[in-house]
Amino acid sequence: MSVDDSEDSVADARSSEEASEDRTLGQQVGRSAMWSAINAGVLRLATFVVSLVVAHLVAPEKFGLFTVALTVFTIAISVSELGVVSAIVREPKRTAEIAPSVFTISLITSALLTVLLVAFAEPIARELGDARAAGAVRVLSLVVLLAGFSQVPAALLSRDFMQRQRFIVDAAFFVSSTVVMLALVSIGDDVQALVWSRVAGQLVTVVLIAWMAPERYWPGFRASEMKHLLTFGLPLAGANLITLAIGNVDFIVVGRTLGVTDLGYYNLAFNISGWPVSIFSAVLISVTLPTLSRVRHSSTQLVKHMSAGLSAVAAASFPVCALFIALAPHLIDMVYGRRWHPAWVALVVLAIFGAARTVLTLFSDLVIALGLTRRLLLIQLIWVALLTPAMVFGVRRWGIAGAGVAHVAVVVLVVIPMYLMVVRRGTGVRLGWMVPSLTLPIVASVAAGFAAWGVAEVVHPEIAQLLLGGLTGLVVYGLVGFKWLTRLRAHLRAMYWTRGRKDDDHPDVALAEDDGSLRHSAEPYVPESAFEVREISSPGT
Q1: How many whole angstroms separate alpha carbon 288 and alpha carbon 527?
Q2: Comparing C-alpha atoms, which of 364, 289, 352 is closest to residue 531?
Q3: For residues 320 and 350, what is the distance between their CA atoms, to the nearest angstrom?
Q4: Which distant-in-sequence residues (6+ apart) come within 8 Å of 235 by Cβ?
Q5: Handedness of CA 70, 76, 77, 78 (dihedral sign)
Q6: CA distances (Å), 148 to each of 114, 199, 216, 410, in order?
Q7: What integer pLDDT is reported at residue 386 of this predicted model?
Q8: How confident is the model at residue 450, as a pLDDT?
Q9: What is the CA radius of gyration of the chain?
């Protein structure tokens, strides 16, 4: 055999091995995404049904108090492990070396935060709008403590794409927390029912997730690993904290400016607008971070997975947001009751923000996977610096609708352009692949929204406005985007669900050509979630 033949054989072997790895990864991503979709869809529907019941039992003022406590809890839980848990997802081959140290950091930090929340609950709640929420803050601090025991097992499930097991854990959280909540609401203590239900659900989560984790680790200490973990984890914890500030500044401003009743209306509208985010982001978070981290050295594979993810998210979430805009007052009145009617004005604007959030979630995962965390931190700093004064101005001028206006203005005019610039400079790949991924879903969604609004204006009663308007909008969306949606379905099926495929066996949908090698900065640890979703009830932490 000649030298050239030998080199060709080695090249063919490597190519075959890479193709095999690509198929295996695609199958893992496909199965994980399927279970994540089931998880998000089933539990979101169940949560929606329970929220309807609770909305008729709990007054808007009580929801406002719970929102104050939930704001404090969300900020605390975002830094409860100092960003180090993501090391297990980022470096799966080093799990045995780093997991004990990660466990120790998580427990110590969670315990310290619990003590601080208990000690300073009253002044914190007062600063956020109502000192009466102090008791709820103290109860939710127990969830922070319990979460310290579940962080490492949860990372192991994410690392190995074990979303079926995660579905079981989240379902157990939902059932246990719902039973406790409804039982306590029937007694009459509304706020305590909402917070203690989360404690009960988190306790169940700790037990189940530890049992289902593929490996067992106990707290340990390695000085070299501790230094390494904190060096990379602390900047990401800071970035995550800023992200949470971005996600909660509206609740703080609305609560302090308008009071807890309007905060309750705004919380409901924000949660509804976040349905597409919470469902599709749950699927994305389970697969995009580990997937993009594994293919980050190949611009071709990176663009292939990104274009597939962006097309799928836009196709599924944009029409839902358009229907929220068109049918907001009918949705609020029919589903939650007329006493929640004032929430519809905020929902109209927040639905636009909801559509943008689904895209931002995907791009934030890409920036983190590429190791561009300093640029991510800069984006977040600029974001929160601009959002705070915009939020104050918007709320004072237009009430709860002004909060949505502030979100949309900052994201559309500043944040999205910054993300695009970072991705372009960080990868060296042109962004032309985004155009077909977004253009048709936007056009079809706008058409669907106008069709739904038109039908709702001419039919009666209210249930007909909601049902016929929504059905008409979906039909119009399907007709306008039929060809594109058909190609997208075939593309996703070939990439993630067809076994034994070859790379060229599927049609291209919104794919770009690789025009250069990727550039990388230092590789950080990947946080499990770049954007937390605020909601009345959710699966386990």
Answers
A1: 12
A2: 364
A3: 12
A4: 83, 373, 374, 377, 524
A5: positive
A6: 10, 13, 15, 34
A7: 95
A8: 95
A9: 23
Confidence (pLDDT) at 519: 31
Tokens of 259: 């009071």
Q: State the pLDDT at residue 499.
A: 46
Average confidence (pLDDT) per 10 residues, the chain, 541 residues: 47 48 58 65 71 69 75 78 73 79 88 90 80 84 88 81 80 86 77 84 89 86 77 70 79 86 88 75 64 71 81 88 93 84 92 88 79 79 93 94 95 91 79 83 94 91 88 95 89 67 39 33 28 32 35
pLDDT value at residue 41? 65
Prior bond to 461 cis, omega within 30? yes
Half-sphere exposure of 278 (CA within 13 A, CB side): 23
Task: Look up residue 398 and give its two tokens.
Answer: 């237009």
Name which of 312, 337, 311, 335 is nearest 323 in CA terms.
335
For residue 444, what pLDDT is reported?
A: 95
CA distance 469 to 258: 33
- DSSP single-letter state for residue 527: P
Structure tokens that stand for 313 in this block: 């998210």
Q: How far apart are CA 509 and CA 434, in angstroms?
A: 10
> From residue 97, how far is each of 82, 87, 88 by CA, in Å?
18, 11, 10
Q: Tokens for 65, please give them.
A: 């108090």
Please give the pLDDT value at position 22.
54
Contact 403, 250 (CB under 8 A): yes
According to the model, what pLDDT value does residue 359 have? 85
Amino acid 267 reads: N
Closest CA to 170 of 44, 54, 82, 11: 44
Q: How many Å apart are CA 176 and CA 243, to the nearest integer?
A: 29
Contact 338, 462 (CB under 8 A): no
Closest listed residue to residue 268, CA positions, set 327, 193, 313, 328: 328
**Per-residue model confidence (pLDDT) at position 452:** 94
CA distance 133 to 65: 5
Give the number of other CB atoms < 10 A from CB of residue 223: 8
Q: What pLDDT, on the 0 to 100 scale, is given for residue 498?
A: 54
Structure tokens at 281: 């982001």
Helices (H), 91-188: 95-119, 121-127, 134-159, 163-187
Residue 88 CB partners (closer than 8 Å, separation 6+): 95, 98, 99, 102, 152, 155, 156, 158, 159
Quick one: which of 495, 498, 497, 499 has its CA closest to 511? 495
- CA-CA distances (angstroms) from residue 57 to 60, 69, 455, 464? 10, 19, 32, 26
8 Å CB contact between 346 and 404: yes
Residue with tokens 């059932």: 175
CA angle 435, 296, 440 (to 5 degrees): 15
